Task: structure prediction
Amino acid sequence: MALFSAKPAFNETLHVGRPNIGNREEFHRRIDGILDRRWLTNNGECVQELEARLASLLGVKHCIAMCNATVALEITIRALGLKGEVIVPSFTFVATPHSLQWQEITPVFCDIDPLTHNMDPLCVEKLLTPRTTGIIGVHLWGRPCDVEALGGIAQKHNLKLMFDAAHAFNCTRGGRMVGGFGNAEVFSFHATKFFNTLEGGAVATNDDDLAQQIRLMKNFGFAGYDNVVYIGTNGKMNEVSAAFGLVGLENLDQFVAVNRANYQVYRQGLAGVPGISLIAYEEGERNNYQYIVCEVDHASAGISRDALMEVLHAENVVARRYFYPGCHRMEPYRSYFPHAGLLLPHTEALTQRVLLLPTGTAVGPGEIEKICRIIKLAVEHAPEVMRKVTTG
Result:
């Protein structure tokens, strides 16, 4: 192992979320069209086409393209009239609570179900106060939240319900595409996502009034030429990003097929390794398989998650700790809520176990098999690895 001064297994660094690239010739053709039209942003032809195709794919009335998912979250939160307190999981990317705190709304952190890694509806009910105005669920790893239970809570207490669907593009729950649940759902099309627009995002909703409000707010509140009717900001997606997304849509099935095949190679390669398990995806549902999520049980494997990460990093495999250390342990939240971890035992435990491994079109079966052999070797020599990591 390279940790013990051997040559790294890989000359080129393997990353989690290395971008998928669609058909280059088709992308170049679309870029030529954009340049010929000289319409680079402000609801151009490519953005309009992308929104229409996304709405059709997701089975929703409205899909509004945005410059990124964080701005999409912020605008949707504001359009829904959220204020006071909003319940969110801590086990998520920090953009989720930041989009609330940025607008002086208090994110109230909810614990997760240790089996699904999604927010636990039973914990949500315990966190409700007179100041609660909404719930933001996060469809982690493309496995949707318990939308029915969360919807019931929202309806019972007259709360707004939206979802951070950054991981869940092209995924289903009960055969229904993610995008139409709650009041609205927000997607990320960042470069690290299996489907990307270089940088971008979108809001999906079936609410006509909400969609109209969001469209106003993403373009400074303009309702026609020289007519500003509402406070807004600049959340528009540009034409080049939309063109990249349109090409990606044409390659979507290929991207998913590669991810699924990679997932199966990992499952086979890591089967039977003590203390190492991959999360399962429900075969009856549609999933994008964009994340290879490994849980490391220190007691069973004899090696900690962080030690295994060091082993892989030494081999030029940049495995990642998602979502370490939990949003409640990041600023400003750890200062605002210093004892939040006491209410988040499952979140605290999971932040010490999860390790994400490389996948996507930049990784093939050969590389994956080699990664699995490295993990096996590390577990087989766990005592030596732990001594090396702790003593240097």
